[in-house]
Amino acid sequence: MGKHLLVTVSEDGSALKGIQFIQGFFEHREALHLTLFYTAPKPRMVWIDGEFFEAMSEFDHTVHQVRKVGRKSLDAALALLAECGFSDGQVNSRLRLREVSTAKDILGEGEKKQYDAIVLGRRGAHRLQELVEASVTEQLLDRQLTVPLWICREPAPGRRNVLLCLDGSEASLRMVDHVGCMLADEPVHGLSLLHVSGNGLFTAASTASIYAQAREILVQNGVDESRINEVHVEPASVSGAIIAEVRAGNYAVVATGSAGRGPLGRAFLGSVVRDLMARLTGAVLWVSA
Question: Contact at 8 Å (CB) between 214 and 177?
Answer without folding.
Answer: no
